[in-house]
Amino acid sequence: MSVSTQPARPLYRTPSIFRDFPHLVAAESTRHGGVSPAPFDSLNLGLNTDDTPENVAENRRRFWQALSIDPTRVAASYQIHGNEVLTVCQPGDYQGFDALITCTPGIALAVTIADCTPVLIYDSARKAIGAIHAGWRGTVGGIVAKTVAQMSREFGTDPTDCFAYIGTCIDECSFEVGDEVAEHFSEQHKYFNQRAGKFYVDLKKANYDQLKGAGLADSNIQLSLHSTALDVADYFSHRLEKGKTGRMLACISMVENG
């Protein structure tokens, strides 16, 4: 299991787990480098916020341009905090899916995040990719394991050939939950804080264990060192900022003819 480090205040960060694959573009945006005013300052990429559409459009233009990705080749879905996986053959806007997979070069898969866990997967043998939005409900619903299984069915993916990045999300010490949420998580993915009288859940560990359980090697999984709640100067946190904030994107794409 590796970890990521990059210079402070970039427009996006690139997972180092994918650095040996030059035909692969993978990134996770920060909140820097955009035009949106507070409380969406500044690189708000979320379409469903109270920010102006003009600001979001300009922010998205800057993000995709920085990655040399054609925005007309992006596939994304209106996420519902579920565990449905869509096999994508064409770019476009979809509805009701929290994970997207494809084996088509040139399509960029993107998920929107602001505390939930983004997971990016690359099958280095079959040349297939996946992008996952794992909220607590999706995590409980096994969305990461379900995505790997669907890649295996659709593309013949062998999990031992896969590399994965578990991205920036709310950290264990900040994700306080009630009993009605905690009861869905196993003991190794939560702890009870006696002083607060509340459970705290580790989404990164829960999704990491799903990847391991699906067959990925420990050395092929990278965990972000960052936290949306602890590093709110660099990332948007829906919980910490009480819903008045922007959204990030995590994306992955295979370059055509790469």
UniProtKB/TrEMBL annotation:
Question: Per its UniProt record, what PANTHER family does this chain match?
Answer: PURINE NUCLEOSIDE PHOSPHORYLASE LACC1, UNCHARACTERIZED PROTEIN YFIH
Which Pfam families does the protein's record reference? Answer: Cu-oxidase_4 (PF02578)
GO MF assignments? copper ion binding; hydrolase activity; S-methyl-5-thioadenosine phosphorylase activity
In Swiss-Prot or TrEMBL terms, this protein is called: Purine nucleoside phosphorylase
Q: What is the lineage of its organism?
A: Bacteria, Pseudomonadati, Bacteroidota, Cytophagia, Cytophagales
Entry's Gene3D superfamilies? CNF1/YfiH-like putative cysteine hydrolases (3.60.140.10)
Q: Which UniProt keywords apply?
A: Hydrolase, Metal-binding, Transferase, Zinc
Please list the reactions this protein catalyses: adenosine + H2O + H(+) = inosine + NH4(+); inosine + phosphate = alpha-D-ribose 1-phosphate + hypoxanthine; S-methyl-5'-thioadenosine + phosphate = 5-(methylsulfanyl)-alpha-D-ribose 1-phosphate + adenine; adenosine + phosphate = alpha-D-ribose 1-phosphate + adenine
Family membership noted in the UniProt record: Belongs to the purine nucleoside phosphorylase YfiH/LACC1 family.
